[in-house]
Every structure is written in C-alpha cells, then in structure tokens.
C-alpha cells in the first residue's frame, strides 16, 4: 500500500452511515493516527493467523485441525457422489 495516500479509504470527518444508533449522530471517520495499529492488520489473514499462533498455540492448532477435517469431509462427500 502506498503510505503517501494513507491507510484509510475515508477522509477524516466523513460520516460513515453505519446506522448503528437509533438516536444521535452517526459515527465519523477519524484521522489514521487515531486508530489502533492492529486495525490495519485485521484484514491480513496471514498476519492475524501468525499473531494468533504466537498468543495461543493450542487454540491455533485446534483450529487448523478442524479446518483440515472439514476439508477432508467435504472431499469425501464429493467423491461419494461421483
């Protein structure tokens, strides 16, 4: 990403139209520096997965095994229909 353009797609002060409050003002976009650093990595799956692996290895491994099992089950179901 080009750092000269900034990280955000909205200019500061833009009304976000999220419709999350019944009453009151709608949320407004902030300056990029006002958001926490982890926010910019939240859409990067590899980065988030690596961070999760460092924090809680056993839960990360359990998730990996679950993904492998689901993939194997889908593959077996597909092959049984052929």
From TrEMBL:
Q: Which domain of life is it from?
A: Eukaryota
Annotated InterPro entries: Ribosomal_mL54 (IPR013870)
Alphabetized, the UniProt keywords read: Mitochondrion, Ribonucleoprotein, Ribosomal protein, Transit peptide
Q: What is this protein called?
A: Large ribosomal subunit protein mL54
| Transit peptide recorded as keyword | yes
The organism of origin for this protein: Hyphopichia burtonii NRRL Y-1933
Localized where? Mitochondrion
Gene Ontology terms, MF aspect? structural constituent of ribosome
| Similarity comment: family membership | Belongs to the mitochondrion-specific ribosomal protein mL54 family.
